[in-house]
């Protein structure tokens, strides 16, 4: 059965959540190569996930060389999801926490 709701489409697998988490914790646009390194995903799998998240407007692709990706902070559903992840102690985003270097 295919996902019906936009939230189901954006969060199909734990890998989708891992990409969102990595982008949230870094806080700055990152290349797909850096994202692959920190998520443990192959470039091919990551590209598919990024495209799905872009389609759902959870992620933005920046016109840089190489392209970089960041969370769409204007997406209210994403904001609520990030709040949930933070309250569940899954997301560690706060001032004073050293950011991982994602390129």
What's the short version?
With 103 residues, this protein is mainly alpha-helical. The chain has five helices and three strands; from the N terminus they run ααβααββα.
Number of separate strands: 3
CATH homologous superfamily title: Winged helix-like DNA-binding domain superfamily/Winged helix DNA-binding domain
| SSE sequence, one letter per element | HHEHHEEH
Strand order in the largest sheet: 1-3-2
Query: What ranges have pLDDT less than 50 throughout 5 or more consecutive residues?
Result: 94-103
User: Which structural class matches the secondary elements?
Assistant: mainly alpha
Note the quaternary state here. Answer: single chain
CATH topology: Arc Repressor Mutant, subunit A
Reading off the top of the CATH hierarchy, the class is best stated as Mainly Alpha
**Nearest-integer average pLDDT:** 86
Q: What attributes does this structure have?
A:
50% helix; 5 helices; 103 residues; globular; disordered C terminus; mainly alpha; Arc Repressor Mutant, subunit A
Topology:
Elements: H1 6-10, H2 14-26, E1 30-31, H3 32-39, H4 43-55, E2 59-62, E3 68-71, H5 76-87
Antiparallel strand pairs: 1-3, 2-3
Describe what you observe in this structure.
The protein has 103 residues and is mainly alpha-helical. It has one domain: Arc Repressor Mutant, subunit A, CATH 1.10.10.10. The chain has five helices and three strands, in the order H-H-E-H-H-E-E-H. Strands 1-3-2 form a three-stranded antiparallel β-sheet. Strand 2 and strand 3 form a beta hairpin. The model is unreliable at 94-103 (pLDDT under 50).
């Amino acid at each position: 059965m295919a996902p019906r709701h936009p939230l189901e489409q954006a969060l199909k697998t734990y890998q989708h959540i891992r990409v969102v988490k990595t982008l949230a914790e870094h806080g700055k646009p990152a290349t797909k190569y850096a994202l692959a390194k920190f998520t443990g995903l192959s470039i091919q799998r990551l590209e598919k996930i990024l495209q799905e998240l872009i389609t759902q407007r959870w992620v933005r692709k920046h016109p840089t060389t190489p392209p970089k990706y960041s969370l769409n902070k204007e997406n209210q559903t994403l904001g609520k999801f990030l709040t949930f992840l933070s309250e569940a102690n899954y997301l560690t985003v706060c001032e004073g926490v050293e950011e991982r270097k994602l390129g």
